[in-house]
Amino acid sequence: MKVCKFGGTSMATAASVTNVKNIILSDPDRKFVVVSAPGKRFSGDTKVTDLLYAAYAEQQKNGDVIRLLDEIKSRFVTLATEMKVEIDWDSEFKTIYDGIARSATDDYAASRGEYLSAVLMAKVLDFDFVDAAELIKFRKDGSFDAMLTNDLVEKRLKHAEKGVVVPGFYGRLPDRTIKTFSRGGSDFTGAIIARGVAADIYENWTDVDGFMVTDPRIVSDPQLIDVLSYEELRELSYMGASVLHPDSVFPVQAGGIPINIRNTFAPEKPGTLILKDVSGYDRPLVTGIAGRKGNTNITVAKAMMNDEVGFCRKVLSVIERYGLSVEHVPTGIDTMSIVISDMRAKHVDGEKLLNDIRGMVNPDSIEVSESMSLIAVVGHGMANTPGTAAKIFTALWKAGVNIRLIDQGSSELNIIIGVEDDDYNAAIAAIYDAFFKA
């Protein structure tokens, strides 16, 4: 039994939807389908989800969403016409118009792209449509209710006699309002369905051949990763490898279900297999290299800091009050650095934050850098192979890249290197060359 999730590029045009149809109908084991909202049809186009966010914003500002909803409707009418299926779009969009007008948040509006995509795909395949709101449940505080959701999926879908299409990205709160996952959450929905029906494999169909060792925008034609572990996937996804939502690992990991990353536009290729146990496979020392720009590094210096009980806790309590995420906390005898990933995104007043730290611990100095990139070198083989770190640092030295931070995870699955944003591309390329071109 297979659960298949198809991303936005797979649902963008009639040609791509036809590919999806052919893939599903070519294998009777592909019984459960999760779809994203249609993505960009061409360079410069707008994703349907972005149009829906804009529609909600227009409703809040001017009380009128007709122009944007008409643009979205036109796309679905075109898809349905070219796929030769009949759907009452007037009725669907009247419901959406009324729903956006009543909605207190933009979650309902954002979710409608997936909803409409699933309505279309169910008609194309002659499968049953099951609304994600009936299956995916959130608690009152907005947290995902995994146990209740798994029970509902199992009861409703596991013994379904006919194929089923489920919209990705959203579920429902106890008060029956719609709640979405973070962007890319359709991956998570697919994994949830896979666990609930006890699938043999979760196929995640996208627009690439699989998981690449590193970003092809930086390294030309990087190697494809044949096999990954769940842990390696989490590390690489969290650090910027955008093929799969990082949280989508958890449901399938709990059920021991393999993930297969496949290309909708090249279905003959095997893609990347993600497994609980990768022992026994012939794998390279380094599995993947990923990173993120734009981190903020705050270095707090104070003589005899190590003798001051609670020093680190006090600094971190200030960071916590601002609702910021701490990535790494390397320390020395008299210094403490805090690497923060979301200070820019949350538009935090940096000077106010630093003043609060000064008031809390009275440091000798504070230095701030808002242009640090974090790069993760990931692989199960690194822990037991002498010289791995030396190889990384030598490659960066030869490329003229100055290292600002070094941190190795407790699992020894990754080595994190901090460099200036301006050196990010050069650092990625140098590390890749050292391990895959040497």
From TrEMBL:
GO cellular component: cytosol
Gene3D superfamilies, per the entry: Acetylglutamate kinase-like, VC0802-like
Gene Ontology biological process: diaminopimelate biosynthetic process; homoserine biosynthetic process; lysine biosynthetic process via diaminopimelate
Domain ACT span(s) in chain numbering: 377-438
Catalytic activity from the UniProt record: L-aspartate + ATP = 4-phospho-L-aspartate + ADP
Cross-referenced CDD domains: ACT_AKiii-YclM-BS_2
Organism: Candidatus Stercoripulliclostridium merdigallinarum
Membrane-spanning ranges: none
Binding residues annotated for substrate, in chain numbering: T49, E114
Binding site for ATP: K5, F6, G7, G8, T206, D207, R217
Name of this chain's protein: Aspartokinase
Known EC number: 2.7.2.4
